[in-house]
Request: fold
Amino acid sequence: MAENAHHWDFDIFEFTEATNGHPLLFMSYYILKKLKLVEEVKVDEVALLQYLDEIELTYQDNPYHNAIHAADMLQAMWVFLNDTRISSACSSLELFAIVLACAMHDVDHPGVTNAFIVKSRHPLSILYSDTSVLEFHHAATGISIAEQRQLFRKMGPGQYDEARKLIIELVMATDMGKHFEFLNKFKSQLSAVSGQKEELKLDKPELKMLVLVLAMKCSDLNNPTRPRAVSLEWTTRIMEEFYQQGDQERSFGIPISKFMDRACQADENVAKCQQSFIDFIVAPLYTSWTSYLVSPANEVILKNVADNRSFW
Reply:
């Protein structure tokens, strides 16, 4: 089934069943082997498999932020990497770091938002000074497991530093607090080359990093771009996770966040949540991204977004 992972309509829930509940392990390993990165980066294959297995097991059993979501996000990135302008601009080490960043980007997620972490005075908020708390935690956890598994032991110091730096930057880019900053930078770069019969070239490190950041963000926020059945499953899962956070907020006596009050889980509440998500986040993001991406997935993505918006 993994051989169809380059198609946008890939069903990650069917893949989860086919892999006996190990979608992240199998998706990660499949992509790394397809890109010949195990050989190119010279990682120990046993250590790699042990690492991927532990990363998957370290994901908590949340309705949404779990190993299935990480595998789904990685599969989306795999579609984007089939645009050879992106993949050929990256070294083998960078491609390896991209796959690892996707795999660990939500590892050990507690199923609540950064805002909740801060206002509930969670120990993580103290550790990371209320700033990008979850993203710092995901990156630190993922890299710590890699160190424990000696995943990077065959790399030279320079290689390790480069891979670690890129992994951290890409994981940190998934912080929604920086969403519009990254999107506006990307749109500005697209505007700068529009009308000049040119395209955004990745020969400059800062431009390549910006494109990789947008690829991470689009991969992470892909739910409304999927076929209706898959998109609805993700909607059910994220709303339940929201309601579980709302339950905690009620028990702590702190204000319940918008769309997270289980007592207001009427259909119109879910619809308003999804309408806002698509209108203000997903549609603008993917409109810009698909204007850059060279992929047969573009047409499918934009149609799914429009269809899912109409549904809500």
